[in-house]
Amino acid sequence: MRGPDEALTALRAGADLIDAKDPERGALGALAPETVRAIVAEVGGRAVTSAVAGDGTGTAIAAAIAAMAATGVDFIKIAVGAADDAALAEAAARAPGRVIGVLFAEDGVTDGWAAHSALRLAAAGFAGAMIDTRGKSGIALPALMTATQLAAFVARCRAHGLMSGLAGSLGLADIPALSGLGPDYLGFRGGLCRGGNRREALDGARVAQAVAAMRTGLRADAA
């Protein structure tokens, strides 16, 4: 969501996770802290909130995490890339129990890579890990990684006490297969916007369809 208005649209459609980011700036475009604060205020505890802090590690990203933490958002997302263990620990320490590490499918994810990444993030104190796509050209996550690879990633996160998320140019048609893998959440942007364009406004009807599809999947898993 890029502002309070979109957050309200998503809430009214039944969304239970509101993610604040700037879709004009790619997968991890951060909004200004004051905008995130306004989104958090609009949500008012009616859903879980997350926000992108940026892409990178070191002093700059640590400061960005601290700034986002001060907005009151529940979780903060950062790209972890090739960060070493010390940099990961420093990032996690800026918002204990609230930082989610973002990995990109284009980086050649394998089962072994997923297991190693989950272990490192858990050891550093991260709250969760997710796989997204760096490019936003319409190539969806399932075209870059197999269901077996994604299931292994989710399982490794669970084994190390991390919440897990899957995202990356996802559409409504991707929900049944991906929700069946058991991630804690699925992330969307373009697939839930008008005309399927991530730069357009959020479409409340599409959000409601996504919510219904995911809840149907949860009921099927519990049966």
Can you characterise this structure?
Strands 1-2-3-4-5-6-7 form a 7-stranded parallel sheet. The chain contains 9 helices and 7 strands. Helices cover about 45% and strands about 15% of the residues. It has 2 domains: about 1-80, TIM Barrel (Alpha-Beta Barrel), CATH 3.20.20; about 100-220, Alpha-Beta Barrel (TIM Barrel). Strand 2 (about 50-55), helix 3 (about 60-70) and strand 3 form a beta-alpha-beta unit. The chain has helices at about 5-10, 35-45, 60-70, 85-95, 110-125, 140-145, 145-160, 175-180, 205-220, and strands spanning about 15-20, 50-55, 75-80, 100-105, 130, 165, 185. With about 220 residues, it is an alpha/beta fold. The termini are far apart.
Briefly, what is this?
The protein has helices spanning 4-12, 33-43, 59-69, 85-93, 111-124, 141-144, 147-159, 175-179, 204-222, and strands at residues 17-20, 48-55, 75-79, 99-104, 128-132, 163-167, 185-187. With 223 residues, the chain is of the alpha/beta class. A seven-stranded parallel beta sheet has the order 1-2-3-4-5-6-7.
Set down the secondary structure blueprint.
Blueprint: H1 4-12, E1 17-20, H2 33-43, E2 48-55, H3 59-69, E3 75-79, H4 85-93, E4 99-104, H5 111-124, E5 128-132, H6 141-144, H7 147-159, E6 163-167, H8 175-179, E7 185-187, H9 204-222
Keywords:
TIM Barrel; disordered C terminus; 2 domains; seven-stranded parallel β-sheet; 223 residues; single chain; alpha/beta
